[in-house]
Amino acid sequence: DGTKITDLVMPATREVQMRVLSDPEIYDLEMERIFGKIWNFLGHESEIPDPGDFVVRDMGSDQVIISRDKAGEVHVMLNVCPHRGMRVSVLDGGNTQIHKCIYHGWAFRPNGDFIGAPVEKECMHGKMMCKEELGLKKARVTLYGGLIFATWNIEGPSFEEFLGDAKWYYDILFKRSDRGLEVLGPPQRFVVRANWKAAGEQSAADGFHTLTLHRWLGEVGNYAKKNDDGTSADLSPEMYGVEISSPHGHALRCIDLARKISRLTGLDPKELSVQQKLDALPPAGMHKDMVEQLARNLSPEQLQVLTTMPPQVGGIFPNVLFGFVYIPQPDGSVLGSLTLHAYVPRGPDKLEFVNWILAEKDAPQELRERILKQTIQLFGTSGMVEQDDSDTWPHMTLSAKGAMGKKQTLKYQAVYETGAPEGWPGPGMVNEGFTKDDTQWHWWMYWRELMTSEV
Ligand code: FES
Questions:
Q1: Residues lining ligand 1, judged by CB closer than 6 Å?
Q2: 86, 163, 362, 369: least buried by Cβ within 10 Å?
Q3: How far apart are CA 435 and CA 441, in angstroms?
Q4: Is the ipTM of this complex over 0.95?
């Protein structure tokens, strides 16, 4: 309608045009300028442990094959046959040394190289192109703590540049142990009738919806925090912490570990040494016998953050959310759950919610089984948390389709002006206090930067 892309996000007033949550033209542009450029999170290498293993995933609006070759290297290739455009793999995953297109039989190696076609002399008689030109389109791939990221931007920024300051914090989560993390079972998946950005901007560490949308967490069952007279306790102190934004739209929200220990275990954190705090609440996905590995893999400054104000929730731009959640157990202990979500775009008003559950490779089997079972019960497909989130996103998307609704703006008015706590050792744009809109706003600013850049 003539609105310039630069005007969709308005820095002077911190507003976003609501139509961005439903407009098909904007969606198409996002597929090129955002998902076609950034490093896309696709899965974890433990999903494809053996040579020939592969899974099929979405990278923006394109489907890709993620496979491991005989040498153990991980590859990401466009799942489009160069002959006539058929999907080369029509499966979700499996194991093969030969990906063979079912249409006319062109065949490809796990690294995407063209092998040949049936009755090759007859099929390939033209010889206009050599075999090297007939392979699958290959993406640039990086593994980070076992997480698989890929980009079509072959000459673009490195993965480390893309993460920027946020990497210092993500290392605390994903590179903290000797052998690293692995996924527990296949990811949980469900489709939500909502624009991917409704969930994506929430992944930039949106905190204060917890007080309202997830209020039941403080009122129901095991999770309830009650006053002595049985009434529901005030959860707002839980909303205080430290939030970190990045110029690349990544974000983290860190919560006071001492408060968490006191609430979840009843212990007095002032009486505990650092080691005792870690024993009381080991990082999610880690057994308490493993906490000695933390000092080997993290710097003293990273360890300081992990043992005082650890990341609880955050996101990797544009559509990945991670969450560290502690689940009280009937015996009084606490189970730490670590999940990674991707909100995969499936059209202007549809996203697929993909939820990976992780634990340390060295964690005992009994702990891994409990983490898997209880995380499935609590999150994602069958859980109560996030089914409530996924009720808001479709409403937001529908609102943005209304003749009047699409002319409204989203207002990011809660602004930090506090700065980092004294002695904070980490990089980035850091603010402390009650959770605000800043991290989501910086998410939108990077969205704007990418959407207005044609390169
Ligand atoms: Fe794949 Fe023809 S489309 S072999």
A1: 81, 83-84, 86, 101, 103-106
A2: 369
A3: 13
A4: yes
